[in-house]
Amino acid sequence: MRFRDLKKQKKQQQSQKKLPVVKYVSYPDKIKAFITDMFMIYAPILYIITYLVMGGKDEFQSSQLAPLIGVSLYGLVYALLIAKFGQTPGKKAYTMKVVDDKTYEKIGFFKALCRFMAFLFSATILLGLLTPFYRKDKKALHDIICSTVEIYE
Asked: Distance between terminal CA atoms of the chain?
């Protein structure tokens, strides 16, 4: 068999592979998962920083560095969980996961960290959080930027 024929056969096999049928996550479920993550991940981080590191709420409130450290730690934990398991505790509670939008496989740590930073940006301008209402695939701005999508398991 000629190389050209083998290559053509391989292309045909790849085109016959179909991507799995996926169901995109609804916006209310995204919000519920986000709130769950805030209580399960971010609140303990803030508690530790406020009372164990800073020594009390007054020191925390007067510090400009403490909230930045809290958000940074939350972003690292979030990215680790997304990269390792494809989901955070809140996403697991609502049986959803974050995957690549073309291959539907888990994303890496740096892509998950980039997604978190893009989320901070899109939440700041608010327009990014409204995009799921106008898209069929329910992608927010941070999903569009990082080529990810949230699907049900």
From this structure: 42
Tokens describing residue 28:
């209310």
Buried b (16+ CB within 10 A) or exposed e, 75-106: bebbbebbbeebbbebbbebebbbbebeeeeb
Q: Do 148 and 106 contact (CB within 8 A), yes or no?
A: no
Summarize the confidence of residues 77-106 as an average pLDDT: 94
pLDDT in tens, 1-45: 677 777 777 777 766 666 567 899 999 999 999 999 999 999 999
pTM for this model (two decimals): 0.82
Q: Tell how far CA 48 is from the center of its chain.
A: 24
User: In whole angstroms, what is the distance from residue 74 CA to residue 88 CA?
Assistant: 11
Question: Please, are residues 37 and 90 in contact by the beta-carbon 8 Å criterion?
Answer: yes
In DSSP terms, 36 is beta-bridged to none
How far apart CA 32 and CA 80 sit, in angstroms, is 20
Q: How far apart are CA 85 and CA 14, in angstroms?
A: 27
